[in-house]
């Protein structure tokens, strides 16, 4: 009788544990889908606010159709073809920075990049890019992926700043000539700033030392130790990453130049690339909320290209067109990928599915 009671008790406990697992699984599924739908909702809202809700979207679309011809379509095809190459280079760069910690396949890393693009659209200063990439790495490597993304982002911004300063100096000189001494002083200050950034980039371990001395709250201090990863990047690796960033920057510039040509905006080659560099410099320097991002890009572009042309609709169409091709299309693919992953498990909050 005693053995029978023990059997029933053990059986009841097993049933209870199984029921708890079912409840936990059900709750996890609900939370997973809630997060995914929230991302989709925010993405839709941001895209609507930045593009669809604009009163002149119809005119921009008509302008696109008007410029779409057999000869101009070559520009469009090239711009679209360069988009996946651009993100492939970012994938290679990120994999290279992460290779010592997790050997991701190219396809999986590419998916991580695209999910990062999706979240970057709905967050200020594109900080969601860091979180989006975590969906494809092991939970124990989340912080390593964040640091790798941080280094890659630093390298890309560094290229934007270096070439941006050169381009802006040339652009300002041809558009609005200034005193030679003022230009020389500006270039000297800019050069000193760039050299300081390069020093920081090639000595990333200095950031760890600075962070250790910074009076962070106790709850944040344990996370500072992850900066030790910065010691593992040597000068050769960082130079390689910088070259990848430079090639990506070249692709950005070519795409921008081609889309200006597509919309019939004719600007001398050197002036065009100097203007593009100036635009990217300003965009890099001013982090904006997602609902204002593309509108601000449009205003910056109008200011720069308005010096050469009165075709304001063509300028806005070029800005929005490049935004759609380079960010919105990849972000839509990223949304599809997010809907096919277990978000909680990817972030380390769920051990069982």
Layout of secondary structure:
Layout: H1 2-52, H2 57-67, H3 73-98, H4 106-121, H5 128-132, H6 142-175, H7 180-202, H8 205-213, H9 221-224, H10 235-262, H11 269-285, H12 293-305, H13 312-338, H14 343-346
Structure in words:
This protein has 353 residues and is mainly α. The protein has one domain. It contains 14 helices and no strands. Helix 3 packs across helix 4 (106-121).
Features:
353 residues, 0% strand, mainly alpha
Summarize the structure.
The protein is 76% helix and 0% strand. It has 14 helices and no strands.
Mean pLDDT: 81
Identify low-pLDDT runs.
Answer: 15-25
Radius of gyration, rounded?
Answer: 25 Å
- What is the subunit arrangement here? single chain
Strand count? 0
Percent of residues in helices comes to over 70%
Helix segment tally: 14
Count of separate structural domains: 1
Given helix and strand content, the structural type is: mainly alpha
Q: In angstroms, what separates the terminal alpha carbons? A: 38 Å
Major pleated sheet:
none
What is the chain-wise order of helices and strands? HHHHHHHHHHHHHH
General form: globular
Q: Please state roughly what percent of the residues sit in beta strands, choosing from under 5%, 5-15%, 15-25%, 25-35%, 35-45% or over 45%.
A: under 5%
């Amino acid at each position: 009788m005693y053995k029978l009671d023990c059997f029933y008790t053990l059986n009841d406990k097993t049933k209870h544990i199984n029921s708890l697992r079912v409840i936990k699984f059900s709750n996890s599924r609900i939370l997973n889908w809630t997060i995914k739908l929230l991302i989709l909702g925010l993405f839709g809202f941001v895209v609507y606010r930045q593009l669809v809700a604009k009163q002149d979207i119809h005119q921009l679309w008509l302008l696109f159709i008007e410029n779409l011809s057999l000869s101009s379509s070559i520009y469009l095809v090239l711009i679209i073809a360069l988009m996946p190459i651009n993100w492939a280079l970012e994938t290679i760069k990120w994999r290279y920075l992460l290779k010592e910690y997790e050997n991701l396949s190219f396809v999986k890393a590419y998916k991580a990049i695209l999910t990062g693009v999706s979240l970057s659209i709905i967050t200020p200063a594109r900080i969601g890019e860091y979180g989006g990439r975590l969906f494809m790495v092991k939970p124990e490597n989340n912080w390593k992926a964040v640091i790798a993304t941080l280094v890659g982002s630093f390298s890309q911004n560094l290229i934007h700043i270096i070439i941006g300063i050169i381009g802006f100096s040339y652009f300002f000189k041809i558009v609005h000539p200034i005193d030679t001494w003022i230009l020389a002083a500006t270039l000297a200050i800019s050069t000193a700033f760039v050299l300081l950034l390069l020093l920081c980039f090639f000595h990333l371990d200095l950031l760890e030392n600075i962070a250790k001395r910074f009076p962070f709250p106790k709850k944040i201090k344990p996370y500072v130790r992850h900066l030790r990863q910065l010691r593992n990047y040597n000068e050769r690796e960082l130079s390689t990453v910088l070259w990848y960033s430079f090639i990506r920057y070249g692709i950005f510039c070519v795409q921008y130049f081609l889309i200006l040509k597509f919309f019939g905006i004719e600007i001398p080659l050197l002036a065009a690339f100097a203007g593009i560099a100036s635009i990217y410099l300003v965009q890099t320097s001013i982090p904006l909320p997602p609902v204002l991002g593309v509108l601000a890009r449009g205003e910056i572009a109008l200011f720069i290209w308005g010096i050469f042309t009165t075709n304001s609709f063509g300028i806005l169409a070029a800005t929005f067109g490049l935004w759609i091709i380079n960010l919105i299309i990849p972000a839509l693919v990223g949304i599809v990928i997010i809907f096919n992953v277990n978000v909680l498990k990817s972030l380390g909050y769920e051990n069982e599915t």
